[in-house]
Design brief:
It contains six helices and eight strands; from the N terminus they run ββββαβααβααβαβ. The protein has helices at about 45-60, 75-90, 95-110, 135-145, 155-180, 190-200, and strands at about 5, 15, 20-25, 25-35, 65-75, 115-125, 185-190, 230. Strands 2, 3, 4, 5, 6 and 7 form a six-stranded antiparallel β-sheet that branches. Helix 1 runs antiparallel to helix 5 and helix 2 (about 75-90) runs antiparallel to helix 3 (about 95-110).
Length: about 230
Amino acid sequence: MATKASTQEHLDIEDIRDNIVILKNNAASAVVQTTAVNFDLLSEVEQDGMIAAYSQLLNSLSFPIQVLVRSKKMDISAYLEKLVGAESEQTNPYLKEQIKSYRQYVADLISKNEVLDKRFYIVIPYQDISFKPSVSFLDIFLKVLGIETKKTVRVNKRYILDKAKIALEPKIDQIIKQLSRIGVKGKLLTTQELVELFYDIYNPTSSSEEKLKAGAQEYTTPIVEAAIEKG
């Protein structure tokens, strides 16, 4: 019988627990989602102030971060359906016509232009520099014989999680406080939000309105599946 190959086996993610992404190389990361600011609408003084605050944020960092901007085409068909329902339920002829006009305007707008949803994230990594992959007696014996073995790093999730929490907590607080000085709000993604984020990233064909049916803690099987089967 053919068995489906799980794409999740080839991902770098080992687990997601306590708002932290645990990686297979014994590293971990926390993800802070931020709001956005329309820079062009600010006055020249406000723009200068924001640039100065952002410069202070960068100069205050003693650890690496990754800034991620994610753009995704939005499916607003559900929104258009709500407008249709509101139009049919409206008894006032004038308001009914206004809803219809607005619905047609939105439909015409999305037919000519893509509506993109932009999300902004700051990834804060943790790496245990004291970690060294364990070497068994069998590995040493095979090496003496000239036989190279494929090393499988065993991830001690509880150890990495405990160490990552201690290291990442002050960094997360620093990032969020520095962001507030720029006028941007930062929010640490929860375990459930991280699972939904990676589910959406690795399943791009799923509907933007689709949500995971169960909580993150209830998933014991891969949530990312391959489209092909192994014979």
